[in-house]
Specification:
heterodimer; A: 115 residues; four-stranded antiparallel β-sheet; B: 115 residues; 0% helix
């Protein structure tokens, strides 16, 4: 199994809603990542978890709250988002996050629209 | 800090024709270089990567790329394009001793394949 599964595929939420994005992998990877991708732009790194601990936060606003309950699961909790947060949210995993040569496996993403 | 330039925003080729996508990087040391492909509504998939060794790298789906240090380039090639190759292509560069998720992506090249 070389898949990273993201749910839901599409999400529409209001600015006062609370929602969560979910990402799951069963490859035994110990590093997981959240990226944000605007249309026609490259992905931007948001968070990195290594061995279930947050290792990188790229100065992401607190309305985005990541969580890694176990080595297979990564969540992104959303609260009080703004319309400019509408984007494709991608999850990725790698065996570890030691260096740039690690191969990243990406999920298909959650297309988020904030109204 | 490293940077990547993909000079071509959009390229159109006929099915069966050859393809070359350009990538220029800026980095003071030997870079880690990657090409990713993203089909509409999908995550990114690694096509190939280079760090050392043979400067001509073979990847998946019949793609290859050549590292040219003197030109700071890592161009992607395919001898005969298939309609299924239509997608967004991202070149990325990673720096030594940085996290796998912190590779810098170019802005991407959109490939359209004419029948």
């Amino acid at each position: 199994d070389t898949e990273v599964t993201q749910t839901p595929k599409h999400l529409v939420m209001g600015m006062t809603n609370k929602k969560s994005l979910k990402c799951e992998q069963h490859m035994g990877h110990r590093a997981m990542y959240w990226y944000k991708q605007k249309a026609k732009k490259p992905p931007e790194l948001m968070f990195v978890y290594s061995y279930e601990k947050l290792s990188i936060n790229e100065s992401v606003p607190s309305r985005f709250s990541p969580e890694c309950p176990n080595s297979s699961l990564l969540n992104l909790h959303l609260h009080a988002l703004q319309p400019e947060d509408s984007a494709l949210y991608l999850c990725a995993s790698s065996q570890v996050s030691r260096g740039p040569n690690e191969k990243l496996f990406f999920g298909s993403g959650t297309q988020l629209s904030v109204l | 800090a490293q940077s990547v330039t993909q000079p071509d925003i959009h390229i159109t080729v006929s099915e069966g024709a050859s393809l070359e996508l350009r990538c220029n990087y800026s980095y003071g040391a030997t870079p880690y270089l990657f090409w990713y492909v993203q089909s509409p509504g999908q995550g990114l998939q690694l096509l190939l990567k280079y760090f050392s060794g043979d400067t001509l790298v073979q990847g998946i789906k019949g793609f290859e790329a050549e590292f040219k240090r003197s030109q700071s380039s890592f161009n992607l090639r395919k001898p005969s394009v298939h309609w299924s190759d239509a997608a967004e292509y991202f070149c990325a560069v990673g720096a030594i001793n940085t996290n796998a998720g912190k590779s810098t992506f170019g802005d991407g090249t959109t490939l359209t394949v004419k029948p």
